[in-house]
Amino acid sequence: MIIGIKKRLGQLRNVICAIRKIARDGGVTYVNVAQLSCGGVLKGKSALITGGSRGIGLEIAKKFLAEGAVVVITGRNAEHLKAACKAIDNPALRMIVWDISDVSQMKAKLEDSIALAGGTIDIVVNNAGVCPLVDFWETTEEMWDSTINTNAKGPFFLSQAISKYWTGLGRGGKILNIASAGGFVGAMTPYRMSKWGLVGLTRGLGLLLFPRRIIVNGIAPGMTSSDMLGFDADDNAYAHYPPSNRVARAEEIAEVALFLASDAANYIVGQTVICDGGYSLKC
Q1: Residue 267 catalytic?
Q2: Domain count across the chain
């Protein structure tokens, strides 16, 4: 009898919580992500993931580790990186404090990352990014420079540095650029303009580097549950703008990243896979 009453009270609390979310957000959507196990498809490989301490970068790191890779994550905040390493607790995960927008550090930091990874890097994921939530009218020069330097200049020069490294060794590798669905719709903010540039870079480098056995592709997530944008899909994934009526979970983006980083996708070149719940179809 008591157990039955507790169960009913729990159900009532869930209903009240759902009503509050509907009033706050306009609807309620919960998301369960099916995660594929590929039997260690990245075993023997190492990956460098920029901006890997949180959000999409962290979920990609987890996925790569689960599939056998050694992973080096970068970020500006040492405490965030340490917290990520502690939470994952995997000896194959390493960290390096690195501001990807500072090109003067590029050569030294890449060399340090290669050493941390055990002497080589096979995959680079250009994920680090910033997204100031301002419109066209409020954008300042400082916001512009900070966004473009992190989201576009950093990936450009890291791609250049790792490509020179691979070419010098006479071997290939993979570059995966995390762009945005904003790179496929009208751009009036530095964030969207930087992502347009990253989509273009993916196409250009795909063509340039494929003869050197360097495969470049990208992913363009739509609105994704992350600290950057303030969405918590565990709480409520509802969003009215995409046809899916929800934001993505970072784990969903990581599933696509694993496929593109693996040898199963070696015939896909210079493409950016849009993962936005259909949002860009409306634009």
Answers
A1: no
A2: 2
